Amino acid sequence: MTIDIWSDFACPFCWIGKHRLQAALAQLGPAFGPVSVRWRAFQLDPEASSEPVPLRQAYAAKFGGPERTEQLLATVQAQARADGLAMDFDQGQVKVNTLQAHRLLQLAAAEGDPQAVSEALFQAHFAHGRNLADLQVLTEAGMAGGLSAARIAHWLAGEQGLPQLRAELAQGPALGITSVPTFVINQQWAVAGAQPVPAFVQALRQIAAETGLQPAQPAGSGCNDDGCSL
């Protein structure tokens, strides 16, 4: 079984969904069979600047003011902490363009450990408030996945892999994916959002048994209880 995770590092539910999927796979156990997890790049705001903007300021502009922003952040933070994730929106998070973070993960998929790198990037942003467009932050995340600092710097300074990444960024919307996380299983079935662990277990069992699962259709704009959309 192959699971493609369409995700953006700016989406808190993508971190939550990652861990819920991992918990579901652990619950299913080795007898379920081999599962290949692949990360797919998606940008909620491809026009975002590489210059940092305070996250609360950006959210207030998008979601209708400071009060709504505080409600949203409190809700998602509570969900993350209930799942054991140290999400902390009081760490001075900033909004930046996530293209370089996706480029780093692209390199890790080819030469390192993409699961470790993705986790390091999510932790850097959501637990520690670090800037995901900063070379030092990206370097530390890449080294967590076995990449060398020199290789990371060379990759991010050039344009190698950029055409392929831009094609992948265009592929998600072309497939009808407008919200993340979206988990595409065996390139045929889609599960949208950071679903509860039992829902993942049920979906994976159904698909493995070839009973069929209709693709979930993302809807709406912004963030709700389990995902973020364009």
From TrEMBL:
Highest taxon listed in the record's lineage:
Bacteria
Q: Where is each DSBA-like thioredoxin domain found?
A: 2-204
Q: Which Pfam families match?
A: DSBA
Q: What GO molecular functions are on record for this protein?
A: oxidoreductase activity
Q: Which InterPro entries match?
A: DSBA-like_thioredoxin_dom, Thioredoxin-like_sf
Protein name in the entry: Polyketide synthase
Q: Which organism is it from?
A: Stenotrophomonas koreensis
